[in-house]
């Protein structure tokens, strides 16, 4: 009974994109481990960019810096 926890930043991920993530993760378990999709659980957690850091910075700050001058 696989349990897959996918964590993504909460940056406007659509319902269709979430469905694709669930389908893709489930299919991976079927293809690689021959698991039953009916007992494969996929949980998507959306994390605020304030609560996600890379290096010394919050993703919120990194996103702001990457958009400066790119308009």
From TrEMBL:
Coiled coil: none
Domain 4-oxalocrotonate tautomerase-like intervals: 2-55
Family listed: Belongs to the 4-oxalocrotonate tautomerase family.
Organism: Pseudoalteromonas aurantia 208
Xref: Pfam families: Tautomerase
Keyword annotations from UniProtKB, A to Z: Isomerase
SUPFAM superfamilies: Tautomerase/MIF (SSF55331)
Protein known as: Tautomerase
EC number of the protein: 5.3.2.-
NCBIfam families named among the record's database cross-references: taut
Superkingdom of this protein's organism: Bacteria
